[in-house]
Structures are given as structure tokens and as C-alpha cells.
Amino acid sequence: MQGSSLARTAALGAMLLAGSFSSAHATFIQAPSTITVGQTGDSVFFTFAGFSADDTDQLRLVNGNTSVLIFTNQTTPVGTVFNTGPLAAGQYMLQLWNLSTGQIYSSNRFDNTHDGDFQHLMETTNFANFDLGAAPYVAPLYFGWEDEPGFDTDSDYNDLVFTVFVDPPVAVPEPSSLSLLLATLAGLTFFAWRRRERSGGALRAA
Ligand SMILES: [Ca+2]
Ligand SMILES: [Ca+2]
After folding, report:
1. Cα of 158 from ligand 2 centre, angstroms
2. pTM of the model
3. What's the gap in Å between 130 CA and the centre of ligand 1?
């Protein structure tokens, strides 16, 4: 399960947008514009990895017509995990709500028409690129938002940093395999009982 989750996270990173983009921090690359939930029932897990920003920013997941709050950068402890719970299969966009300026930015840069299609979400394999000290935990990819407008951005992309993976649903044992499991447990219990009986008898004989 862990392995497939990591593989899916890596797949997210592999889905790069076409086109070129230049940043003050060349070590960042464009994050995918959407998160893919492969099958209905999958959950998406976000972990807050840190921030350095004056503004108050919220990471949000766009789910249908609603925008679900995931983290607030100023108040969320590093390492906090947010589980969306089961989602319908499909593509999900992320948003950054800068509450200090009132601006909303999308993980899909082409929704940022109010900001010249500026790319506000970037990714990197190297946490050190965020200048936030040591990585709080190991992850294959780290995502970071830029909360300033494109025309005057510092492009540090560390205003809200997080990781994400999509988790497939836990398989429920089928009735046939469940009864087999119960039969096995019953058998083990019987043998343990018989072994106790024998050792008990040996003690009594001694
Ligand atoms: Ca910053
Ligand atoms: Ca910034």
C-alpha cells in the first residue's frame, strides 16, 4: 500500500504541464495542475510541511462547486495530516486563498487569468530549495505555493509547503476468504489448547 502510494505520488510529479516556464528558483518545476483520483473511494492525504510567509494562506481542494479547506499556513503544526475521505474518481484542482490580500490562485495556471496565467504552485524533490531548514519528513515530492502576485513575486514558493498522496481503498476480505481465516484461527486455537493440555499432563506426571 505504501509503495503504491509513493508510486502514485511520483506519477503526479511526472505529469508535467507542457510548455516552458522560468523561475527565479530554477530548481523548482511546474507542479501538475490537478490531482488524479483513479477510482471512486480513494482518499487524498495532505501533509503540511512548513512555510515562510507574512500573509495568511489557505490550501484548498476544489471538490465540485465547493472549495474544501485543507491547511492554513500560519496556524497548522508541521506534520499535520489531512485526509479528504473517499472521493469520486476524477481530476481535482487545488487553490491557494491568500486571506491577507483576498487573492485566490489555482493549481491550474490558466485559471490565474487575473495574474497573467502565473504559475503559483511548484514542486521539487529537494526540500532544501524552500530554505525552510531540514525536511520535517521524507517525501518523494514537495509542493510549494507562491502567495504573491506574479508581477512582484519573490518566487520563493515556500509560502505554504505540503506533500500529497492518493491512497486506494483498503480491500475488504471476501466472505470466502474471511471464513477461511476464521477456520484457520479456530484450528490454531485448538492446537494451542491441545499443547497446553499435553504439557499440563506432563507436569502432573512428574
Ligand atoms: Ca515566502
Ligand atoms: Ca513568496
Report:
1. 6
2. 0.73
3. 9
Identify whether residues 93 and 193 lie together within a single domain: no
Residue 145 Cα to ligand 1 midpoint, Å, equals: 9
Q: Which band of pLDDT confidence, cut at 50, 70 and 90, is reported for residue 5?
A: very low
Instruction: Output the CA 206–ligand 1 centroid distance in Å.
Output: 77
Distance from Cα 17 to the centre of ligand 1, integer Å: 24
Q: How far is Cα 204 from Cα 84, in angstroms, rounded to an integer?
A: 60
What percentage of residues in the chain have a pLDDT greater than 70? Answer: 69
Domain co-membership, 135 together with 193 = no
Of the bound ligands, which one is closest to the alpha carbon of residue 24? 2
Q: Which domain holds residue 177?
A: 173-206
The dihedral over CA atoms of 164, 111, 148, 52, expressed in degrees to the nearest 10, equals 0
H-helix segments, the chain: 2-14, 175-205
Domain identity same for 25 and 112: yes
